[in-house]
Design brief:
This protein is an alpha+beta fold and 320 residues long. The chain has eight helices and eleven strands.
């Protein structure tokens, strides 16, 4: 099992800093890990949010009541799921959002509270954390970020989070409980296929398919409260919670480079449906540029005949 690397003792937090618990700053980077491994490979880090009362269940129920009653702000699923189930599993008949959080210890559920950086109570803490990750990763990240978002994940003991990958760069911060976290190499074609990526960027969030044969190639972290994991864009992962309630903070960033690559995958998906075998993004910069331009034009034409999605009504976070 992969665990935490050894790090020097972190500097004591300044008195009165709301980000600090037990004399530890919320985030530190004594070895330069964030810049060195940024979007290349997963790695563990330490943080100071363990025991923070803002992440206790009562506080999270209150947070869920302050969030707008809109699907953009919360996802939850009740009942057992397996590693290869789609995200829709457990959503057909479910408890209310507040009842799911309050009863999380025994209802085999997962809750994801979204855009929590906009909340007036916990938001200032989360916006500072959003800034810290960008600061430590440096210009390579700062120049690529479009927007950032914080999600809070609350899940039951032994609950599985199905195998999937994301279009966002992710830092998963474990606040309460423990879990076994499997991360797969996003650069290996045998672990992430072009067809899966094409499907995902064409609107299928559960396009990634778990294969038992690949599990031996995963990096498996025994993640404890007070630790976190960096997950590169499109790196597949799945989670098995331990014996206790889990509360985790997912810090996500949309990137310009990924938005460009997404257009190539979107176009390749359509070319493959026509019987063609398109080249993978990254094979040729010239070809990628043509695909990006073509996809932009085609998506623009589609928007003329389809209703455009509504613009966000919340204030998005961007780097300073």
């Amino acid at each position: 099992m992969a665990g935490m690397h050894e790090t020097p003792t972190m500097a004591a937090a300044q008195a009165g800093d709301p980000l600090c618990q037990s004399g530890r700053p919320v985030l530190s980077d004594p070895n330069g890990d964030f810049a060195r491994h940024y979007n290349r490979q997963s790695f563990c880090f330490e943080h100071g949010l363990k025991g923070n009362p803002l992440f206790e269940l009562d506080s999270l129920v209150a947070l869920s009541q302050r969030l707008p009653a809109h699907p953009d702000f919360a996802y939850w699923s009740n009942g057992p799921v397996s590693v290869n189930d789609p995200w829709e599993k457990g959503m057909a008949a479910r408890h209310s959002l507040q009842d799911t959080i309050a009863g999380i210890a025994g209802n085999n559920s997962i809750v994801i509270l979204k855009h929590t950086e906009q909340d007036p109570v916990i938001g200032p803490v989360l916006r500072e954390i959003l800034s810290k990750f960008v600061e430590y990763a440096g210009a390579q990240m700062r120049d690529d970020v479009i927007v950032g978002e914080s999600l809070i994940l609350v899940s039951s003991p032994k609950r599985i989070t199905p195998y999937h990958f994301d279009a966002e760069l992710n830092y998963l911060v474990q606040v309460t409980g423990d879990k076994t976290f499997s991360v797969f190499d996003h650069t290996r074609a045998l672990q992430v296929t072009d067809e899966e990526l094409e499907g995902y960027f064409s609107g299928a969030p559960s396009a990634a398919k778990y294969r038992d044969a690949n599990q031996a190639n995963a990096t498996v972290y025994d993640l404890k409260a007070g630790q976190g994991i960096h997950i590169p864009v499109t790196a597949p992962h799945w989670v098995q919670n331990g014996d206790n309630i889990s509360v985790a903070l997912s810090i996500n960033y949309e990137l310009k480079s990924v938005a460009r690559r997404a257009k190539s995958y979107w176009l390749n998906h359509r070319l493959r449906k026509l019987g063609m075998t398109p080249a993978s993004p990254g094979t040729s910069n010239f070809r990628d540029s043509l695909k990006t331009a073509s996809a932009t034009s085609l998506q623009g034409l589609r928007s003329l005949v389809r209703a455009a999605p509504p613009a966000p009504t919340w204030q998005v976070w961007t780097p300073r």
